[in-house]
Structures are given as structure tokens and as C-alpha cells.
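DATA SHEET
Item: assembly model
Revision: 1
Owner: S.N.
Input lines:
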Amino acid sequence: MTPPRTTREIRIGDVVIGGSQPVLLQSMCATKTTDVAATAQMATVLAEAGAGLVRVAVDTKRDAEALREIAAQTPARLSVDLHENHKLAGLVAPFVKKIRYNPGHLHHIDPNISWQDKVKRIADVAGEHGCALRIGVNCGSLDPAKASLDDGGIDTMPLLISTLEHAEFLDSLGFVNSCVSLKSSAPLMVIRANREFARRRPDVPIHLGLTEAGMPPEAVLKSRAALEPLLATGIGDTLRVSLTVPNDRKTEEIEAGRQILANVAAGDIMTPERLQLPRLNIISCPSCARVENGAFVELAETIREATRFATDFPVNIAVMGCRVNGPGETDKADLGIWCGATQANLKRGETLLGAFDYDQIVPKLLEELQRLMK
Ligand code: SF4
């Protein structure tokens, strides 16, 4: 029997999460937001598959203008991902039920304005339009002032401190229609960070997810190992299983989320200790509107096939779709690729080895892998 969840309830349009409400499944559009027809169609397909909330990335005014049309063309309950451009909050709020902001990305635009002023602006706009907020903290894109606290993959302090700080700041503004997420690509870190946050702030609803989980079936197993132990102890009010799959397979995120909830209900809990995966670990993002080259998902799949010969070699390879989380997440991997529009960047740890054309990047990666194996 799962312990009762005890957070406050928050309203996302016509649905309530938190408290004893059912866990809400989420997914995200991976189409270009300016492609209104494709994004509206994807949002509808995801909603029909069971996504109670569908996220759309908005980075520019053109994206924000497209969102108005998307909202008119889909019955999906929409959330917006405002990674960097806090100034767009006012343009998108009328068309969505929830706004996600990332504390680690508030420093890029208008560095002379404090993060507190930016969050206040977002909260004011959200309050005016009845939107919920999510403080979405991600290991791959931490606030630089907190990132230096990281010890390389297990310590949860940077994630935790950043989330607590923003939750307290929203409290100070009197904004309580909010939830948080603390994501990492390491299941153990997701468990530790969320447990500690829930211990310190049992009142705040939590959106669960393993970021950059990679491709199925490994990504589903890793997500199970991160999310099921938390849900089994009453932590988690919404969730997303992030999968690197082509757009026409995105509903697999919902199917995997539903399976996780069924496993928890049946008491069949995967844990990081029970997880049996190849020692060569591929971390890859689920792609979204920001992906800089449409070849990204295929590239991730090609890398998985090309590295099968090294399955037993303990190495982390990160494959990321854009510069948003790419540079940060590849810093922590042994080898990393993050995609640009015409070239892909290859890294060994924090060192950039170069930018290569898409038809050269896999052989270059394999050369580096062979070098590491020697
Ligand atoms: S790394 Fe970039 S493309 Fe991939 S999910 Fe994150 S923001 Fe989207």
C-alpha cells in the first residue's frame, strides 16, 4: 500500500494535482513550435494517448505567436517551457495552463536584472492568467552559482539548493500554485534529490522525471529505477518518461508512464540496485522544438548501434540535441556530442575536441572511444 501523498493541491486549468489526486502523465512536443499544424497535431495525439499535460517549448516571439494558433487547434492541456526568455511569459500565459521555468537559464538574458526580479515577473503574469508554475531544475543546466557545488554526479546539493531557493522565493511572493522538478540523468541522484526535497518541503507537489534518459528499452528501465521507488513512498504528483524516439513514437512516453504507475500499484518496484544495463551508458535527450538538426534522433540510434562492440566498457556517452542542455550534460559524460545546426560538437569530459559534419561525427566518436578503451 503506497503511503498517502500530502502535498498541497495546485490547479492546472481544469485539473488538480498534488494532495491525494491521481498522478498526472505528461509529455512534450518535439516539433518546431513555429510549425503550428505539426505541433497542434502532436499535442492532440499525445493528449489522446493519455497525456494530461503537453509541454511546448517557446524561445522566441515567433514561437509565442505560434502558440496562440496551436492552442486554438488542439484540445490538449498545454504547458509552456520558458527556458531562457523570461520576457515571453506575458505573451504565452493567455494560451497555456502552466509555465515551466528553469532557474539555471535565468542568467542568460538580461544579466543585469536579478533572478528574483525575473521570477517575480513570471509569477505576476502567471497569477494574472491563472497559470500554474513549475520550477524545473535540471542537473545539465544548473545556475552557475550552484553548479560549482556539484561533485560529479551523485551529490544532490546543487539541485536541491537551487530548487529550495526558488520554492522559498515563490512563497515570499505568496505564489502557491506551483510545483517543482529535480531532474538528473542518474536514477540514484533523482531519488536522493527528490527524497530530500520532499522531506524538507512536504507541502510542495513534485513533477518526476529522469532527464536525458536515452532510448528505449534502456531508458524505460532507468526511468523505472528512478521513479518507482519515489512513487512507492508517496513522492510524485506528475511524471514524464523522456524517451529519445522519432516523433511518430512519442506516445511511448505515455505508455511507459502508465506502466510505471501500474508497477507501483502492483508493488513491482525497480530500483537502481536491481537495474542491469550495459556498462556503456548512453545518455540522450528526448529532443524538443529546440533540436538544432532533425538528424539528432537518428544520430543517437546510430551511435548506439556503432558502440555495441564496447557494451562491457564502463563509459558514459552523452548525445544531446542542442546547446540548451548539451554543453552542461556533456561536461559530466566521458564522451559527449551536442548538436548544432550544421555540425555536431564532440567532447571528452569538459574538453571540446572539435565540431564535425554529421557524416564525420560517428567515426570521430569511435576513434575517441577506442582511445579511452586503450
Ligand atoms: S537538449 Fe535541447 S533539444 Fe534536447 S530536450 Fe533539451 S532543450 Fe530539447
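QC remark: The mean pLDDT is 93.
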